[in-house]
Amino acid sequence: MSTNSESNTEVKFSEQVLDVIRDRRTVKRFKPDPIPTETITELLDVAVWAPNHKLREPWRFLLFTGDGRQRLVDAISAEIGEENNRFAEGILHNPFQLVVVMKEDPRQLVWDEDYAAVSALVQNFMLAGWSKGIGTFWVTKPFLYGPKFREQLDILPGEKVVAMIYGGYPDVIPKAQPRTAAVEKLTLFDR
Q: In sequence order, which ranges of the chain are alpha helices (DSSP H)?
């Protein structure tokens, strides 16, 4: 433990997060077992600790569980047509889908900072979920930009869908894919 000199409170440091980051996998096949809403909101309450400039908290969330998943299927069908909605079966099988929406600021610097913050929040959510045995899959699809999809879900002009996250208990956990060592992409300035 260490003492934080600003507030004189104890801060606990842990290397467990290193394991969670390395072990997390993108899960595309889930068991049908429901995840309690309280668990998802607990994960979101951890995720909101993402760094965000001036604590703007530019995010909001749309959670689809149980029978509410049909509303997401209907919104996708409204945009791409029911006959083209190859997502419906998966959405209705997966325990939950979370749509993460960002309020867009017209100033480019602020927009960039907010987008980075919301992306960090999504990663935090996925890592927090993994630490509880919950797998996730971050989806970005063209229909997320569609006006009919957005209208069906009350996503307003000036808001961007940053992520649609499928989630649940993993049915299949894929093997790790190799990563390039950071040193191979590192330019070091030490003088």
A: 16-23, 37-47, 69-80, 88-93, 108-131, 147-152
Using alpha carbons, select from 118, 123, 73, 119 the residue that is nearest to residue 94. 73
The backbone torsions φ and ψ at residue 70, rounded to the nearest 5 degrees and listed phi first, read -65, -35
- The distance from CA 87 to its chain's CA centroid, rounded to whole angstroms, is 18
How far is the C-alpha of 103 from the C-alpha of 90, rounded, in Å?
28
N-to-C CA span, the chain:
34
Q: Is the dihedral of CA 57, 59, 62, 63 positive or negative?
A: negative
**pLDDT digits 0-9 by tens, 3-53:** 455 666 787 777 788 888 889 999 999 999 999 999 999 999 999 999 999
